[in-house]
Design goal:
It contains 4 helices and 7 strands, in the order H-E-E-E-E-H-E-H-E-E-H. The protein is α+β, with helices and mostly antiparallel strands. The protein has a single domain, classed as 60s Ribosomal Protein L30, Chain: A (2-Layer Sandwich). The strands form 2 sheets. It has a 5-stranded mixed beta sheet, covered by helices on one side. A two-stranded antiparallel sheet has the order 3-4. A hairpin with a 2-residue loop joins strand 1 and strand 2. Helix 2 crosses helix 3. The longest helix is centred in the middle third of the chain and has 23 residues.
Length: 172
C-alpha cells in the first residue's frame, strides 16, 4: 500500500506546503536527509490552534494541532522529494509545545504527530523524538514540529521494497 493511498484512506488531502514566514527555507536537504523547518498548525492559510496548552488549548486540541503540523510536514517532504515512496524512514521528530507554567503533558500532545506518522509510514516510522515546552511561540501557534526524514533514490527504493516484500513472504 502506497503512502498516498494511506493518506487517502485516512481522509487526508495534503495541502500546498506552507511557505516560509521569514528568511529561511521550508525544508533543506543534505545527502539523503531532508529536514523541514518548523511546521505550524496552518489550515487554509491561518493558524488553526493558537494559544498556550494549559490555558486556552486543551491536551486534545494540542494533539490535533500536532497532527496538523505533521500533515504540513508531510506536504513539505513531498515538495522536497516529489514521491513520498522515496522516504525510507522518519528519523526524528522535534516538537515544541507552547504552554503555560506547570504544563507537563508535552508527550501526549506530540503523540498527535507520532501517531499520524505511524499510520501513514508504518515501519518507516521509527523516529526518535524531542518534546519541549516553551513559553512563547511564533504567531501564537500551540505547537511547532521539525521532521527529519531519510530518503532513497528510485532504484534503491525499488530494491528496498522488493527486499521487504520477500521478507514478508518468507517461510519461517
Amino acid at each position: 500500500m502506497t503512502i498516498e493511498y494511506k493518506l487517502c484512506e485516512l481522509g487526508i488531502e495534503l495541502p500546498p506546503p506552507p511557505p516560509a514566514v521569514a528568511a529561511y527555507r521550508p525544508w533543506s536537504r543534505t545527502g539523503n536527509l531532508v529536514i523541514t523547518s518548523g511546521q505550524l498548525p496552518w489550515k487554509s492559510g491561518k493558524i488553526a490552534y493558537a494559544g498556550r496548552l494549559g490555558e486556552k488549548i486543551s491536551v486534545e486540541e494540542g494533539y490535533q494541532a500536532a497532527r496538523l503540523c505533521a500533515i504540513n510536514a508531510i506536504a513539505q517532504l513531498k515538495n522536497a522529494v516529489g514521491n513520498l515512496e522515496r522516504i525510507a524512514q522518519i528519523v526524528r521528530l522535534e516538537g515544541f509545545v507552547h504552554c503555560a507554567p506547570g504544563f507537563r503533558r508535552h508527550p501526549d500532545v506530540l503523540d498527535g504527530a507520532s501517531h499520524l506518522f505511524e499510520q501513514v509510514f508504518g515501519e518507516r516510522n521509527k523516529h526518535s523524538r524531542l518534546a519541549l515546552g516553551i513559553s512563547d511561540m511564533p504567531l501564537d501557534a500551540a505547537v511547532q514540529l521539525t521532521v527529519m526524514a531519510e530518503i532513497v533514490d528510485e532504484s534503491n527504493r525499488r530494491a528496498s521494497v522488493e527486499s521487504r516484500e520477500q521478507l514478508s513472504f518468507a517461510e519461517p
